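Weekly sync, protein design subgroup
Attendees: M.S., D.O., the rotation student, P.L. (late)

Item 1: inverse folding check
M.S. brought a backbone from last month's batch and wanted to see whether the design step gives back something sensible before we order anything. D.O. pointed out we never logged the input encoding, so this time it goes straight into the notes. Structure tokens as presented (280 positions):
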């Protein structure tokens, strides 16, 4: 074969090899970027004990069972390189977004009736956290907008049998995640807490019926400002993550304290529950 024929063929092979190497390098880069982009979702189911007092419905305290379903989503974007405009040393943005949607059902009873109170609520929390990374430890501190809508029904009352729960607040929030390995297997320990600081809530006045409020339009300080002074509130949970069958499961403890003292009425709902779920 002539030398003039061999050289173009050799150059063609070299070009193909270079193209393959570039494609491989690009693929590795994309995988690296995807690995550093942090997007976490979790579905959590909680079941446990609930303690309810609502003096608008009854002067008696009720205890019973509560069931919750919570869906969380965390998003922390990756940037191509670290800079001084809100990015960390590993190319992760310092700020992350968090959204939590929670639905709960509760059934509680007094001494005379095991099914006195039936409750249902929807809770939406959304906001931003500032991330602090220390090796295997990640700490997030931020603020969440907290919206709650629901109600409690007293099966024994014929007059004023239900109570509307409607509130909006700003919650300081903290989250911490410690990732570690045992015999090469990945685990994580998480703590999350948020506590309403300032907000507004709906509350009927003492002795005021819903007919007066919504039908006759008799407003009587039914929108009240809330703070820790009107009732300390906090939701916190401790979770343990582990991998099984290529899926990350989580198990832990949930504590939720909701309180409000307004218009000469008192309300509290204390929850202690076991949580199980999975992350994806």
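Designed sequence read out in the meeting:
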């Amino acid at each position: 074969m002539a030398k003039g024929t061999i050289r173009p063929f050799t150059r063609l092979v070299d070009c193909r090899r270079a193209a393959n190497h570039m494609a491989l390098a690009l693929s590795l880069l994309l995988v690296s970027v995807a690995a550093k982009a942090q997007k976490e979702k979790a579905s959590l189911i909680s079941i446990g004990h609930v303690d309810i007092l609502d003096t608008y419905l009854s002067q008696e305290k009720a205890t019973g069972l509560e069931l919750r379903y919570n869906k969380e989503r965390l998003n922390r974007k990756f940037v191509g390189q670290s800079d001084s405009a809100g990015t960390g040393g590993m190319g992760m943005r310092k700020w992350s977004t968090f959204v939590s949607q929670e639905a709960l059902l509760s059934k509680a009873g007094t001494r005379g009736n095991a099914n006195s109170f039936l409750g249902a609520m929807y809770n939406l929390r959304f906001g931003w956290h500032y991330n602090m990374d220390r090796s295997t430890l990640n700490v997030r501190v931020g603020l969440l907008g907290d919206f709650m809508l629901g109600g409690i029904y007293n099966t024994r009352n014929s007059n004023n049998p239900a109570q509307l729960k409607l509130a909006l607040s700003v919650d300081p929030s903290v989250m911490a995640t410690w990732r570690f390995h045992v015999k090469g297997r990945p685990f994580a320990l998480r703590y999350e807490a948020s506590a309403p600081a300032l907000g507004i809530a709906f509350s009927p006045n003492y002795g005021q019926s819903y007919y007066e409020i919504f039908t006759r339009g008799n407003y009587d300080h039914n929108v009240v400002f809330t703070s820790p002074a009107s009732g300390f509130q906090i939701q916190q949970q401790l979770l343990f993550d582990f991998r099984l069958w290529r899926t990350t499961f989580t198990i832990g403890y949930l504590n939720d304290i909701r309180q409000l003292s307004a218009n000469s009425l008192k309300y509290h709902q204390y929850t202690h529950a076991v949580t199980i779920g999975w992350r994806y």
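Discussion: The chain has two domains: 1-36, 38-279. The first strand starts at residue 38 and ends at 54.
Action: P.L. to compare against the previous round before Friday.
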